């Protein structure tokens, strides 16, 4: 499904180019959120942190900053990109 979403993104980016509309996909992983509802505690949390190359979970603040950049004035030249916000989890 990720490939399908990215294909749709590229198509939309081409279709909306030059209109002021930009497109992006944010693909987060290992983000410490309230939605996890305590499921990432203790040993399970340690496992997630250990397999994340930066050695920690991402924060909702980091996710929010990325969104703010993309929708803000400085994100106007950025379109058709996928942002893997995952601490290096999907590198390589």
From TrEMBL:
<dbReference type="InterPro" id="IPR036291">
    <property type="entry name" value="NAD(P)-bd_dom_sf"/>
</dbReference>
<dbReference type="InterPro" id="IPR002347">
    <property type="entry name" value="SDR_fam"/>
</dbReference>
<comment type="similarity">
    <text>Belongs to the short-chain dehydrogenases/reductases (SDR) family.</text>
</comment>
<protein>
    <submittedName>
        <fullName>SDR family oxidoreductase</fullName>
    </submittedName>
</protein>
<dbReference type="InterPro" id="IPR050259">
    <property type="entry name" value="SDR"/>
</dbReference>
<dbReference type="Pfam" id="PF13561">
    <property type="entry name" value="adh_short_C2"/>
</dbReference>
């Amino acid at each position: 499904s990720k490939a399908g979403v990215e294909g749709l993104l590229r198509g939309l980016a081409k279709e909306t180019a030059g209109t002021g509309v930009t497109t992006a996909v944010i693909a987060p992983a290992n983000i410490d959120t309230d939605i996890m509802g305590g499921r990432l505690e203790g040993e399970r949390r340690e496992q997630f942190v250990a397999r994340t190359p930066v050695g920690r979970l991402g924060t909702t603040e980091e996710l929010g900053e990325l969104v703010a950049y993309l929708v803000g004035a400085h994100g106007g030249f950025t379109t058709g990109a996928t942002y893997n916000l995952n601490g290096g989890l999907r590198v390589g």
